[in-house]
TrEMBL record:
The gene is galE. It catalyses: UDP-alpha-D-glucose = UDP-alpha-D-galactose. Its cofactor is NAD(+). This is UDP-glucose 4-epimerase. Residues 3-253 form the NAD-dependent epimerase/dehydratase domain. InterPro entries: Epimerase_deHydtase, NAD(P)-bd_dom_sf, UDP_G4E. The keyword Isomerase applies. Its EC number is 5.1.3.2. Homodimer. Belongs to the NAD(P)-dependent epimerase/dehydratase family.
Length: 329
């Protein structure tokens, strides 16, 4: 039986493909490489280059792959700032892609899908940590598009035999344990890879966006989830659905928050580099603190976080220092 990984050439999707293969699953990938890398997908996975909104392509994939037991869906545009400038493009790709996928699943009788949602569906939460009961009030088109996708899945699951799990990731970071794949976004905006680029000497310094937040040291607090822990949750979610589990949503984080300065300190310890920093202004739309309450994922999926921030940065550093040009060479 095959797991079809949509967006399997991207940062998170490529780690899912890698871990599924290592656990003996048969894997096929669809990706249009808009932000992904062909080199991130191992030869053991069958690769279809194209857009999930292309109904003809989806029909060809579902026809060729005769034994799809479930989908993992990672395709999306996912930059908050870009989504504020180009909302229509975000709804077209994220929501449009989801429609095409749900239609193909229905047409070909594929029953299970695990998909990437995000803490951005919560907007600026009134309290922390954030549980599945916290109201979802996105404050940007990216978060809104993911909330719409969650709702589409819910209605589709009520109308058909399909079941889904929406996994709302908090801050994903890290890389494969041996550093052979890792994060390689062309326009990098995330804190940890930018800090490591400074450690590599690719940037002069890291600007920390604001130290006047309502937190212990004034910088924002985020909850970092290790890549291996994250993919483990996807595999557990897929197995849960295959075993007859009902459609559900889970918040995925380590349930532990780190301030931006604590992240920087940990990176200095791991890399042994100075990593110069400057204090900048707030980045618009950043909530003071985003920490997950992942109790439900533990109880229902039997999922347990194994790795802390030091492990995350160690793996990320292994990837960055062994691949100075990322996937370019
Ligand atoms: P990414 O950009 O590296 O991966 C997305 C992949 O999907 C890329 O390979 C891209 O080429 C592909 N893709 C996009 N649109 C497509 C389309 N229409 N057809 C076919 N392929 C398409 O991003 P990522 O960081 O790996 O994120 C994966 C998912 O996780 C996204 O849905 C994102 O919203 C979600 N997410 C990420 C984070 C994070 O911290 N990285 C946090 C929360 C949620
Ligand atoms: N951040 C920062 N400098 C950077 C990039 C990010 O200070 O160059 C901060 C950002 O303001 C936030 C935290 O790091 O407080 C995490 O940001 P990231 O973009 O990695 O993830 P987000 O929480 O926005 O999904």
């Amino acid at each position: 039986m095959t797991v079809l990984v949509l967006g399997g050439a991207g940062y998170i999707g490529s780690h899912a493909v890698d871990m599924l293969l290592s656990k003996g699953y048969d894997v096929a990938v669809v990706d249009n490489l808009v932000t992904g890398h062909r080199a991130a997908v191992p030869a053991q996975a069958r690769f279809y280059e194209g857009d999930v909104r292309d109904r003809g392509l989806m029909e060809r994939v579902f026809t060729s792959e005769k034994k799809i037991e479930g989908l993992m869906h990672f395709c999306a545009y996912s930059l908050v700032g870009e989504s504020m400038e180009k909302p229509a493009m975000y709804f077209d790709n994220n929501v449009g892609g989801c429609i095409s996928i749900l239609e193909a699943m229905e047409e070909f009788g594929v029953k299970h899908i695990v998909f990437s949602s995000t803490a951005a569906t919560f907007g600026i939460p009134e309290s922390s940590p954030i549980s599945e009961k916290t109201p979802q009030k996105p404050i940007n088109p990216y978060g809104e598009s993911k909330l719409i996708m969650e709702k589409m899945m819910k209605w589709q699951s009520e109308a058909t035999e399909m079941t889904y799990v929406a996994l709302r990731y908090f801050n994903v970071a890290g890389a494969a344990n041996d550093g052979h794949i890792g994060e390689a976004h062309k326009n990098e905006t995330h804190l940890i890879p930018i800090i490591l680029q400074v450690a590599q000497g690719k940037r002069e310094n890291i600007t920390i966006y604001g130290d006047d937040y309502q937190t212990s040291d004034g910088t924002c607090i985020r909850d970092y989830i290790d890549m291996e822990d994250l993919i483990d949750a996807h595999i557990k979610a897929l197995e849960y659905l295959k075993a007859g589990g009902k459609s559900d949503q889970f918040n995925l984080g380590s349930s532990h928050g780190y301030s931006n300065l604590e992240v920087l300190d940990t990176a200095r310890q791991v890399t042994g580099k100075e990593i110069p920093s400057v204090m900048g202004l707030r980045r618009p739309g950043d909530p003071d603190e985003l920490v997950a309450d992942s109790t439900k994922a533990k109880e229902v999926l039997g999922w347990q976080v194994q790795h802390d921030l030091t492990h995350i940065i160690e793996n990320a550093w292994r990837w960055h220092s062994s691949h100075p040009d990322l996937y370019e060479k």
